[in-house]
Specification:
The protein has two domains: 11-110, Beta-grasp domain (Ubiquitin-like (UB roll), Roll); 125-244, Fumarate Reductase Iron-sulfur Protein, Chain B, domain 2, CATH 1.10.1060.10. It is 34% helix and 17% strand. The chain is built from nine helices and seven strands, in the order ββαβββββαααααααα. The protein has helices at residues 43-53, 113-124, 146-156, 163-166, 169-173, 179-191, 199-206, 220-224, 231-246, and strands at 7-18, 29-38, 73-76, 79-82, 94-98, 104-107, 110-112. A five-stranded mixed beta sheet has the order 2-1-5-3-4. Strands 6-7 form a two-stranded antiparallel ribbon. Helix 6 packs across helix 9 and helix 7 (199-206) packs across helix 9. The protein starts with 6 loop residues before the first strand and ends with a helix. It binds iron/sulfur cluster, FE3-S4 cluster and FE2/S2 (inorganic) cluster (FES). Residues 62-65, 67-72, 82, 84 line the site of FE2/S2 (inorganic) cluster.
Length: 248
């Protein structure tokens, strides 16, 4: 008989990659846990149950539990995804979890995407470089065309989870590749009429093999992005503009 009021009876086996790089004597290993699936169970709920009831040493990250903060990204059966938005019922009875590759490992399923995202943002200067007259605080900011605002907003939905980078073959080969997340940011600032930068400025930032010319159109980024950002189209726009710029 079921022990939980919400249990649906299925037993799930979790195979989780464990490793604490801070502990000198630790080695990477798979560890198995079993628990009973409950209705509406997400990987967030399952991992918390494992940590509460079976293994308090298990490391993983969550903040919002709602697909907003980007901190719970991990490899779920080999595919990058958000643990808080993944229902166990959509997976098999045996689930393999591993930390996102590419990023600095903190321990077990926890990686330091924030450090990489910050460095990438500083490198690509992902903030509005205001035109001079807009610094005049006595002026009322011009109204933006709602359609354009909507296009910018769509690209701003990126939660910097790192799934696109973890799934990208180019990122595995080039550690300085800015990834789809970086190219999406360039696409976003190119659209913004408040930004004074020109394509010549963007060419300086991403007009090389660590930028848009390193992208081999593998499109895993587009497939795994949990926010369904139109990454393939945006990368194509940036590439076209940078090719044109290269000939000017
Ligand atoms: Fe995550 Fe998508 Fe942003 Fe990449 S582009 S960091 S996959 S939300
Ligand atoms: Fe990588 Fe996406 Fe380009 S997966 S190679 S950034 S299309
Ligand atoms: Fe914030 Fe999953 S916990 S996106």
């Amino acid at each position: 008989m079921s022990t939980s009021p919400h249990a649906n009876g299925r037993k799930i086996r979790f195979n989780i990659l464990r490793y604490n790089p801070q502990a000198a004597d630790d080695v990477p290993r798979m560890q198995a846990y079993e628990l009973e699936e409950a209705d509406g169970m997400t990987l967030f709920i399952a991992l918390n149950e494992i940590r509460d009831k079976q293994d308090p040493s298990l490391q993983f990250d969550f903040v919002c539990r709602a697909g907003i903060c980007g901190s719970c990204a991990m490899l779920i059966d080999g595919r990058p995804g958000l643990a808080c938005r993944t229902l166990t019922k959509n997976l098999g009875a045996e689930i393999t979890l591993a930390p996102l590759p590419f990023f600095e490992l903190i321990g077990d399923l926890s990686v330091n995407t924030g450090k990489w995202m910050r460095a990438m943002s500083e490198r690509l200067q992902t903030w509005v470089h205001a035109r001079e007259q807009e610094v005049d605080l006595t002026r009322i900011e011009e109204r933006m065309d709602p359609e354009l605002a909507e296009k910018i907003y769509e690209l701003d939905r990126c939660i910097e989870c790192g799934c696109c980078v973890a799934g990208c073959g180019t990122a595995r080969m080039r550690e300085d590749f800015v990834g789809a997340v970086g190219l999406n940011k360039i696409a976003r600032f190119r659209l913004d009429p408040r930004d004074a930068r020109t394509d010549a400025d963007y060419y300086e930032l991403v007009g090389d093999d660590d930028g848009v010319f390193g992208c081999m159109s593998l499109l895993a980024c587009h497939d795994v992005c949990p926010k369904n950002l139109p990454l393939a189209t945006q990368i194509a726009f940036v590439r076209r503009a940078m090719v044109k710029q290269g000939f000017e």
